[in-house]
């Protein structure tokens, strides 16, 4: 009997609002009930884990919080600790940027979550800080002229975020290994380019050895770090050919670190829209894109490309005939002048060729959902990508939040189970067991 390659599934709560506030199915992004509903649905669907983003700064525009965006984001690890009490098997993953935390503090909180949840904690080691978020963590540069060149600058940013991230993960693992499996602590000491710490770790060894570490594959440097230290890699959803290229690249780097291909899971973030027919699914997808781009949102999107105040423009009127201002604070840190001009010209061409207004152009240019179709068609596509080694699984971004995952669990998961490509029950209790990953060997 041929054993079918198993699909891994997870769900994702974004750090900024990705749901339509006017949709009556949308829940509050700050109330525990929203998180609990999504977590219970994911567990009912036998998902591997729920990933909650950090959301360290509220979305804003022209110096003011954009009132159509999120108006609150609770602290991630606190939310996940509460979710540990209302779930039994679901993995609980926290995104935490290595630029804005310290190894001892974060390793301690993650190990605590692993104990509270019985071995279900995971950490998405985010490595790309942005200048706006860094302003919430403003601190002066290292006072010692002979100090490390990677010390945070006056904006709170880190000059070499990937190098800091690699060392951060290494230090965290050493902290988790400072207790033996038998429960014996030992002092730790680490001195490197970015961190110089010593003492005693206060949390015994985690139930799954180390919390699962989640990395990214955005760049060759990210992929190398993931191959050396990650258990799961999040990727961008692309064509099957692009996905297979990334898959082969990341898996091909593992041998250099003494790791096997099955020691790492590669999972792109995706969105799914279902319908009883293909036409209904396409219409539902188009409706969702229109709901996301309100008249106000369309002007905001335009201002972020053009870099000038366009509030006087009619969202149902034509695009501006002026060029973008790349020096504007509205596009600070976003793109170079040539990139802004290229996007503006693409939008103008789109508007001219299809006779679109500002709002219609923004809707047309917005990203399409990853999978749109009947439950059977979506199940076929997901299975095909996993079977042909383009991915190991998928991280679903539900829309709307939190109820958008229910339909997938009710209509697609049973189809995957019928063909033998997805579990019908949890067979283990830890997140590592769900993912089929080995426990880390204690380095005593």
UniProtKB/TrEMBL annotation:
The keyword Mitochondrion does not apply. Keywords: Flavoprotein, FMN, Monooxygenase, Oxidoreductase. Residues 21-388 form the Luciferase-like domain. One of its GO terms (molecular function) is monooxygenase activity. SUPFAM superfamilies: Bacterial luciferase-like. Belongs to the NtaA/SnaA/DszA monooxygenase family. It comes from the Bacteria. This is NtaA/DmoA family FMN-dependent monooxygenase. Pfam families: Bac_luciferase.
